[in-house]
Design brief:
Blueprint lengths: L1 H11 L3 H10 L51 H9 L6 E4 L5 H17 L4 E5 L17 H10 L8 E6 L9 E6 L4
Parallel strand pairs: 1-2
Antiparallel strand pairs: 2-4, 3-4
Helix pairs in contact: 4-5
Length: 186
């Protein structure tokens, strides 16, 4: 124990060359004045935290089929025609270009929940088509998000919010974008 204390004292004592070196380093450094901030009250108003959506407000618990792009089960024919023709105005878009998988999932989840809370009817999620290498054929699929987003939309907490989804028309991104038709609150 005596040796440890002895070494500790030797370490904490400054050598003359260390002092000169330190003085050279901090030569141009000056102290920044401390701002007068009242820390007793918050500077900004925090937004109200909303609870997640109660999915049972949107459907009555009936069995929901797995949704594929372009499948329109349990929807009336008029709504299907309007959706296929693009007569529903896109009220919000989410662009996932440049997102990693984990980040994209969180964005999709929040986007859908916010869209439903705002009472939107038709939204678009842009996944991109994925990168292709020169040595690949034109028909090889590389888009990870393009494949994953439809699977995410069928998860138990998101599926009840959707009536249908399909790929966007070519002029709006084709198979690199999904058009979603959201359920209305009864």
């Amino acid at each position: 124990m005596k040796n440890l204390n002895k070494n500790k004292k030797a370490i904490t004592q400054n050598q003359p060359e260390d002092v000169d070196f330190w003085q050279e380093i901090v030569k141009g450094v000056r102290k920044i004045p401390t701002p007068n901030i009242d820390l007793s009250k918050p500077q900004t108003e925090l937004p109200e935290i909303r609870q997640s959506i109660n999915i049972f407000e949107f459907y009555k618990g009936e069995k929901l089929d797995y949704l594929y792009p372009g499948s329109f089960n349990n929807i009336d024919a008029n709504t299907v025609k309007k959706f296929k023709r693009g007569e529903f105005k896109i009220e919000a878009r989410l662009d996932l270009h440049g997102c990693l998988v984990d980040e994209a999932f969180g964005k999709v989840e929040r986007f859908l929940q916010n869209a439903v809370q705002r009472g939107l009817r038709c939204v678009q999620i842009i996944t991109g088509k994925g990168l292709h290498r020169e040595d690949e054929g034109i028909f090889s699929s590389r888009g990870i998000l393009k494949d994953l987003v439809p699977q995410w939309l069928n998860q138990d907490h998101l599926r009840p919010l959707l009536l249908a989804f399909d790929y966007a028309p070519i002029e709006e991104g084709g198979d690199g974008a999904l058009m979603l038709l959201l359920r209305r609150k009864p």
